[in-house]
Amino acid sequence: MKQERRKSSNVLLDTALQEFYGAADEMRLNEKLISILSHSERRVQVSIPVEMDDGSVNVFEGYRVQHSTALGPSKGGVRYDPEVDMDECEALAILMTWKCSLAGIPYGGGKGGIACDPMNMSKKEKEKLSRTYGARISPILGKWSDIPAPDMNTSSQEMVWIVDTISKMRGDLEPALLTGKPVTFWGSYGRHEATGRGVATCGLELMKVLGKSPDKITAIVQGFGNVGSYTAKTLTEAGVKVVAISDISGSYYSANGIDIRKAFEVVHANPKRLLTGFEKVGNCEKIDEDMFVDADFLFPCARDGMINRKTADKVKARYIVEGANGPVTPEGDEILASKGVTIVPDFLANSGGVIGSYFEWAQNLQGAFWTEEEYNNKLVHIMKGNFRRVWDYAEAKKIKMRRAASMAAIQRVADVIELRGTFL
To answer: Burial code of 315-328, b = ≥16 C-beta within 10 A, e = fewer?
Structure first.
């Protein structure tokens, strides 16, 4: 019997659910599996009291969602942002399930976060926040159960604090408990750049199948955080002219191509790691919105939902490679499809991060480490193979890449659930 299907008032969660239902129906997946995969295995909410520098105590809300552990331990980042809530974490955990499945690695999907404004917190306050969060969710974390990583507004430093806290609580060092750690503390060469390198690799592979030379391509990279900055760097190294970049400080444009090296210098010199003032030293102009610049490719690497029913028609790029999670809403997707825009979906394009995390985890479990060249070669090899598999499937079935990627990812998880049974 067909059960009532979930809907959500949260745009990102509803987008994730409706994409799943659409792909599942097209695959003729049975209702038992649809019911299981449309719900998360575990949703945890914790309160995090933090004594602030002024002596006051603020209580923050923290979350961790494990969508599926059918393929292996749940995997997903931890983000710090004022808008973090349970529904957002669940949506991103669902996307992580499909991302890990499509990447062919032995992980399920998870995601976590804390509703806070890290930009207005001192390092000491963030340390207290991170350690208490780690302590509160430690019962569900483990190298074979749930493995967090950095995400929006978190870095290797937060991962060290959490690993250190839980290791001390358990009386045993557990470096494989989290990934995205610094090289000096059980991290892996290449991990920091992995997501951006993977996004750029998918873009370059798309150019290849289209018969386009990178040195003839112009691109926009929206968002200049960890993902966007290394996407831009990898693209320019391949010969692509990146004409516009942005972050919360503004959008910056140069028809002759942005000096990405100079942009990195500005970000690293800024206490908040922003592009503030870049137009003064980057030989470019500050504009209202980089996303609507005339260019061949757009790489949205900022927030979810940026390309929607209000903004999609203004996008001039003919090819979009999703670096962020869920940057295009279903309404935006329909508008772009009517314009003939090709989209490489997020859980294919930005899977370099989780593939890189898998590499780090594997090295931690073995106590043996690879060179950066070995890491990058393995990453690019997997990303190219995954892109080509989805592209060929989409071409053969005459469907969009997003639907092709969804169907391939869902099928792998569904097959394992059938093998293991429903008692998971």
So the answer is: bebebbbbbbbbbb
- Averaged pLDDT, 34-48: 97
Kindly state the average pLDDT of the residues 359-386: 95
CA dihedral 83, 88, 93, 96 (to 10 degrees): -80
**Closest to 325 measured CA to CA, from 9, 11, 61:** 11
Residue from 275, 268, 269 nearest 222 by CA: 275
CA distance 288 to 379: 35
Cα distances (angstroms) measured from residue 407 to each of 147, 203, 414, 422: 25, 21, 10, 20
- Where are any strands of DSSP class E within 133-236? 146-150, 218-222
Copy the structure tokens of residue 14. Answer: 């509803």
Cα dihedral across residues 27, 29, 33, 36: positive or negative = positive
DSSP 8-class letter at 308: S
Q: CA neighbours within 13 Å on the CB side: how many for 343?
A: 30
Q: Give the pLDDT confidence score for residue 169 in this predicted structure.
A: 97
Measured between alpha carbons, how far is 300 from 378 in angstroms, rounded to an integer? Answer: 25
pTM for the predicted model, two decimal places: 0.87
DSSP letter at 142 equals: B
Edge-to-edge strands of the sheet including 74-81?
42-51, 57-68, 108-115, 74-81, 146-150
- Check if 111 is active-site: yes
Question: What's the Cα-to-Cα distance from 246 to each of 107, 166, 257, 284, 422, rounded to whole Å?
Answer: 32, 37, 14, 12, 46
Strand ranges (E), 186-279: 218-222, 241-247, 250-253
Residue with tokens 């991290």: 187
Pick the catalytic residue: 99, 111, 128, 181? 111
The closest alpha carbon to 362, from 64, 118, 73, 67, belongs to 73
Residue type, 384: K
Alpha-carbon gap, residue 14 to 131, rounded angstroms = 32
- The string of pLDDT tens digits covering residues 386-402 is 999 999 999 998 999 99
